[in-house]
Amino acid sequence: MFEFYLSSTRVIADISGALFWPEKKTLVFSDLHLEKGSWFAKQNIPLPPYDTLDTLNRVEKVINCFKPSRVISLGDSFHDETWMERISEEQTERILNLTNRYEWLWIQGNHDPSGAPSLGGINVNDYFDPPLTFRHEAKQAFPDGEVSGHYHPKARIKLNRKSFSARCFISDERRVILPAFGSFTGGLNVMDRTISNFFKDDFKVLLLGSKVRQFPKTALIS
Prior knowledge:
By secondary structure, the chain is of the alpha/beta class. It has one domain (2-221): Purple Acid Phosphatase, chain A, domain 2, CATH 3.60.21. It has four helices and 17 strands. It has helices at 36-42, 51-66, 89-101, 193-196; strands at 2-6, 9-13, 19-21, 26-29, 70-73, 103-107, 122-124, 126-129, 132-135, 146-148, 153-159, 162-171, 175-177, 188-189, 204-208, 212-216, 220-221. The strands form two sheets. Strands 8, 9, 10, 11, 12, 13, 14, 15, 16 and 17 form a ten-stranded mixed sheet that branches. It has a seven-stranded mixed sheet with strand order 1-2-3-4-5-6-7, with helices on one face. Helix 3 (89-101) links the parallel strand 5 and strand 6. Helix 2 packs parallel to helix 3 (89-101).
């Protein structure tokens, strides 16, 4: 875990890729992409059909660690419109168990269907709890206290003449973009202008590996 400040508010970047806001006992996940594996199978691209099971196992593990009162899923929680036709009854029950136990907010993402009312929780386009705003995709004109996902950020680091890449958080203490939490999710290098244009020059990444490690922009490789 790594503590940092966002709009003068203490938050914790967890090695899982989740974000925890201690003051409000709020746990945040981004881009679960449930049932992505079964969607690929429909396109005749064979992948092991266990991504939803793996993602839910990790979600439950992080929840048990932080014991939040509120959970926010930052969008793209589901991979496509027809995911409910493919998800197992057992996994549906696991999701319902979570949404019944916690205050649960589903932020609308570009992959999500119109909503998930049958799974409990509340569906919203974005959510504001001062000083933080939670949404799926960052907005250029609204940086202060913004928490978002969508871009699946990753970073390549050069260290001791070696380079390696991994999922990461990216933040300049005004906004943060979370890494994708779901299985079978790729990533976009934070040095790509699609991501870096949202940040000041002194942004940092919190790289996920054996532990969460902070690196400045100067350590990154395009």
